[in-house]
Amino acid sequence: MTLVNKVLLKISTAFVSIIGSSILVFSIIYLLPGDPVLSMIDPSVATPEMVANLRKELGLNQPFYIQFSEYFMNVLQGDFGQSVVNSEPVLPKIVEHFPATLALTITSAVLSVVIGVTFGVLSAIYRNKWIDIIARIIGLFGISMPTFWSGILLILIFSVYLNWLPSIGSDGWKTLVLPSLSLGLVGAGFIIRMVRNSMLDVINEQFIVTLRAKGLSERVVMYRHALRNALIPAITIIGLNIGELLAGTVVIETVFSRQGIGRIVADAIMAKDLPVIQGVVFFSAIVYVVINLLVDLSYSFIDPRVRRAH
Amino acid sequence: MEKLLDIQHLKVDFTMKDGDLTAIKDVSLHINIGETVCIVGESGSGKSVTSKAIMRLIDYENGKISAGSIVLDGMDLAQLSQKKLRSICGKKVAMIFQEPMAAFDPVFTIGSQIIETILENKQFTKLQAKERALYLLNRVGISDPALRLNQYPNELSGGMLQRAMIAMALACGPDLLIADEPTTALDVTIQAQILKLLQEIKEEFGMSILLITHDMGVAAQMADRIIVMYAGRIVEYATVSQMFELPHHPYTRGLLQSITTIDSDRSKKLYSINGSIPGLADLPPGCQFHPRCPFATERCSMELPPLREVNDRYTACWYAEDLVESFDWKQPSGETKNDRHSIKEIVLSDSKRGSEPLFTIQQLSKFYPIGKKSPFSRNSSYLRAVENVTFTIEKGETFGLVGESGSGKSTLGRVLLQLEKPTSGKVFFQGQDLSKLDAKELREKRRNMQMIYQDPYGSVNPRWKVGDIIGEPLQVHDSLSAKDKHDRVQDLLEVVGLNKSSFNLYPHEFSGGQRQRIAIARAIALNPQFILADEAVSALDVSVQAQIVNLLQDLQRERDLTYLFIAHGLNIVRHVSDRIGVMYLGQMVEMAPSETLFLHPAHHYTKGLIDSIPIADPARTRERISLKGEIPSPANPPAGCRFHTRCPAATARCREEQPIFREIHTGHWVACHDPL
Amino acid sequence: MKEVVNTKTVLHVPKWKFTKQKTNFSVENLFILGAGMVVIFIILCALFPKWIAPYSPTFMDTSLILSPPNSAHWFGTDYFGRDVLSLVIYGSSDSLIIGIASVLIGGLIGGIIGSVSGYFGGIIDVVVMRLIEILMTIPGILLALAIAAALGPGLMNIVLAVAVSSIPGYARVMRGQLMSIKKRKYVEASRSIGTPEWRIFLWHLLPNSWSPLLVMATIGLGTSILIGSGLSFLGLGIIKEIPDWGALLSQGRGYLTVGWWISTFPGLAITLFVLSVNIIGDKLRDTFDPKTSRTR
Hints:
The complex is a heterotrimer. Chain B is of the alpha/beta class. In chain B, 32% of the residues lie in helices and 23% in strands. Chain B has an eight-stranded mixed beta sheet, with helices on both faces. An eight-stranded mixed beta sheet of chain B has the order 18-19-20-15-21-22-24-23, with helices on both faces. In chain B, a hairpin with a 2-residue loop joins strand 21 (579-584) and strand 22 (587-593). The longest helix of chain B has 18 residues, at 188-205. Chain C is elongated and about 80 Å long. Chains in contact: A-B, A-C, B-C. At the A-C interface, helix 1, helix 2, helix 6, helix 7 and helix 10 of A face helix 6, helix 7, helix 10, helix 11 and helix 12 of C.
């Protein structure tokens, strides 16, 4: 298979995934046993007419496939539906809030990759030394601490007591520090563990023995050869993690009251505004698929075995 | 002669979770300038550990040199710091390994890895280094060196990679080349090429070679002196001619006698050493070989014999002088006159060979689709694993199947047993077309055809007890009560020479040879007519291999079994088989009775294969005309005769016209336009 | 077929040393022991909160609003004067139920899907895996969130949401494992003696496949509890008198400046539990990992 074919295949697969996830998102809201209308309005105050009107407004009295095709056609035209609370269209709202989320995602991704790869590699090379122990502890805590808790701890320490950084808001780089740290720690935890294992596997390979037998220094053996081999499988996981970070913003933006798309979701949950939740989830799915596609493609360029395999 | 390397009383320990484990002890040896020394031994002998200890590669595997010295050029490598050691590694001493595929970093090109070595050790510019890399690749016989320089390891075949590995080892002109089983993972034809190359470069670069091998034939061909190791110690140390003329240690003698050679008497039982190799953790006291030694006395079980000089050589046996004088030293002692009488003849006369085919294979082909993974790539092609093979297996005979890897011999076996469906062609078993059977009938048919695998551990469920493993076929086919099953399994254990108490043990508690006995017990549980032995003895140590071959032959005689014996070890196939089929690139190119095939091979490929076998007799080293090149990919076989690309006698006709598989003498079939 | 007179068997020695166990034994075992004790203690809290909690979770001591941790109230009191320690102890049951039930459901469904896909392979595998991949296009917490939002509040709904979001992980692990076991020689060996397929599946494939699933379920328990409490934190949880850890933490957020302890301790409980589960999971992985226990 040529490279062009591969890229085409990957892009088309990603496209199918997006269509699939649109069906999925749609099904979750409209097919699950819960009545979307009843979950949108408070049953204690709802009159039957209100329910019927809302149902009609949402097109819920039509068969599923019609509902879906309508929804899908709208999505293609950039119409992600509108809020049931204030009838605002969903997509413009998402687009408006996305930059704040993107900034947070990127900074925390950079943070987690830098911390994760550095500690992961050092941890494997200096196995059972103090740096390994520290790295493993960071790794374990990273994957075990809920972000909403680490976020709150950071606020307590750096905002409430030390008063160094703002606890809320989404303007300026200062507001980015704490949420990125809190979110980045999770990613770092996963990446440390992943890179460490990957590195240890590589170090046990036969070719490392060859390299040593050639008289290369440990530095060259580790950082030139072992590292490159270890990072190739790690990249996929790192890609997936960046996607997870995007999802993690929902929670962390609530903690830090940032005006990102996560915040929209949190508000929509409170207001039981299903179309907004649906819109944001679908939007995130698209971004997630695109990120993974990019990672996957970069993977084919980095690994010569994939690049050159006929 | 001047000593290049001098190892004295070397002891290597590995740190384990429950204390240290000694891998080798009291190993003393030296290598002179320009000399090839072979360390021969079976698994657990410590030969690899010895080789890795020289460059202190064991340091990275939790190993340490706890005693002794390794002196090279007046420096004791055992005492040097890793940093100082780096000025030796790669420059004065270089090393090549068993699996060339695993020995290269997969994400760097071959060229960059060789150049890296050169730059590390010499004051060269990048351009000079590249030139040298090109020269070296060319020297080791790699075609298109400029192209190979930019290729990644996965794009080269195993033989090519081993050549590249040698080129890399030569990069800085080392004084000593350590080769750790350099040809074990390669086909016999490629092995011959690599060994020849090693000999050439040794002369050319004025190196010494330390060759680690398990193969006495390789040692006979390559070595000036041979060191035999057993269970972490040197047991014998002599020049190659001394060693093969008159071994002084019972273990060496056993090893040499266990080897099947190209002209050994097929009607004889193979000589075998009893028992199995001890684990490092539970070595016997006294002489470590005494539990397996036919000459052992009480003294042997108490006192460890030192390596001492006997008749101008070294051996570690209390009774070496007496033993070599004794009457039956040169004669295998383990067998009686009766045993030696033609097992084969009995089988042959019983079954009236030739009258009754058990398997009839007609124009059998097996193709695997490849390269069809993407809807965007149009060309789907096939890997032609087996193509148009026709032959029969007679009742009661052993049919041997040989060929290099990629020849399709294993696939053929699996298709015979219907473990894979043939793409086309027919397989008749006991006159029935197997492809016409439905699933249930086929399962019933499997009673009569069983299989033994190469890897005796991988082919049994590791979570099952031995009793259940052997009893599985009984349980599947005969609904036996627990007690009946237990009894039957105990009988079977006894038949294959295992202790009855093995019933409740797990496979990992057994040695390789014992596991293969378990696999055999399981295969004969249902009293089948046919057993496919796919490389069944290839993974075993020489001393154990003979035991298993003998067991298989005993069972054949007692139970009137028919075998299809697939192996790449030509000597062993020759020993066990009545008739042999030779496969090349999915096709059968020659088929003949065992003796005929080896004495008068008609196909040039067969001749090449036979010529590639290293002979375990230094006196008979011949100038070999072994095969050139490597087996092409079965995805894209050459047109015409598939062998023409490597054939010394290929003509224009061979390139265009595929030869027909025809009978040139009674029972001797060959697919060649100009048979030998 | 490669000749397998492998020198690796010679290196019996280095093979053992490659396993990850040779670390500081006492220290590592101490960690595992501690983790086990934390898990057992928290499970006891969930089962018998009455015996362990010093106060009733609904008891409001209005004289002691927002009192910091002290000898009477180790974790302090909240805005209503409730004892935070007692709230955390009582809140453990819902948090654990969400975690354990969703792992059981997700693991079972994912395991079955993965087994089917891995066993049959071919077109079934392609279709099932495409579906799983689609499920994976939505990151775990978002998927759970969407489902929980659609189903409305309720303990079972949260369990379901978390379970569904965890299915792809289990399915992929089980599929991979089954595909690898399927190729083992002993499976073919069993087939070659005429064992019917259902027996091969039950005798050979399943028993050799589920240890990675078990490892993943252990670590998945931690993830599920994190996602479950995250949903509660966002307000998708069960609204009731005794909040679970996530909700408790969320309630404390409003009082960060006046009572750090209200949010801190429930979070600490989550972290400790998940941490312990992960330590145990790591140990299980080291024990079962085919890479370290491979005997070839």
